[in-house]
Amino acid sequence: MKDYSENRKAHLCKYAQDNNLPIGGKWKDKPYNHILIKKIDNNKCNIEGTVFDNLIKEIKEINNPFGFLDKLHIYARHLNSSQMLCYNYFRPMLSDNKKAKDELVNLISEKITPITNDAECQFEYNPDKNERTEFDFYIKQDACKEIFFEIKYTENGFGKAKNDKEHKEKFESTYKSMIADCVCLKDKKNIQYRNFFNDYQLFRNVIRVTDKNKFSIFIFPRENKNIVSSFERFKKCYISEEYSDNVKALYWEDLMKGKEETELFKKYFAND
């Protein structure tokens, strides 16, 4: 039986073939059927030209389809890119001035916390240039309410860090004070090098919860068992019950209910 990642890659390959997408792109000099072929202009990769085929039609038809994306990941030409899934999902729910349309307002208000059409939205949001964590999607409502999103699709887990001198120094100079300011963590005195680096990406997301108006939201497939188990273990170990609603998971399967006929669903979540 294929694992979730292999299952989705096989589906994406079929989707690409059905839609005449230029697959067979190389990764580390080896071609793969879930990677788009690079488009070359003047002997350089035209990344936006390449990744254009990874957008759903609704976004392709916008005058400036990449206008909200300041940075494309090196994996953006992979059909299973979680960055592109995030963009394909949220971009149609935003107005041209980066505000939330009614669909996003209703979704976030139901699933997380009330927001309005004045909520400001960003992709690849970096709140601290020195600390350098980038959030896949971000919503700010007025001056105090913030929602930080981490998006997963076929990844096998969350990022870890080496227990080396460089990361230990950053823990002491940066993360120790952020842990102290974070209100959702329990047993803070037990968060030391080893466990912080083992759950590096998870900690770097949740330490933004400094009051009840800050939310750390993770979106991933329920069928991706590795991601689900990692998140559930982390939340049980480190997140206090009082802030359970501030650190939570949303499942793609639930978000896509009623959207089975959309291009987005057919691309990412349909079963062959």
Q: What is the straight-line distance between the termini?
A: 15 Å
Physical arrangement of strands within the biggest beta sheet: 5-6-7-8-9
How would you state the average pLDDT, rounded? Answer: 95
Estimate nothing, just give the exact number of structural domains.
1
Spatial extent as radius of gyration: 19 Å
Low-confidence stretches: none
Structural class: alpha/beta
In DSSP terms (H or I, runs of 4 or more residues), the helix count works out at 11
Strand content: 5-15%
- Give the number of DSSP strands: 9
Helix percentage: 25-40%
Order of helices and strands: HEEEEHHHHEEEHHHEHEHH
Structure, explained:
By secondary structure, the protein is α/β, with parallel strands linked by helices. It has one domain. The protein contains 11 helices and 9 strands. It has helices spanning 4-18, 47-51, 57-60, 82-90, 102-111, 165-181, 193-198, 200-206, 225-238, 252-255, 263-268, and strands spanning 26-27, 30-31, 40-41, 44-45, 120-125, 135-141, 145-151, 214-220, 247-251. The strands form 3 sheets. Strands 5-6-7-8-9 form a 5-stranded mixed β-sheet. A two-stranded antiparallel ribbon has the order 1-2. A hairpin with a 3-residue loop joins strand 6 (135-141) and strand 7. The radius of gyration is 19 Å and the shape is globular. The two termini are 15 Å apart.
Features:
alpha/beta, 272 residues, 15% strand, five-stranded mixed beta sheet, two-stranded antiparallel sheet, 36% helix, 11 helices
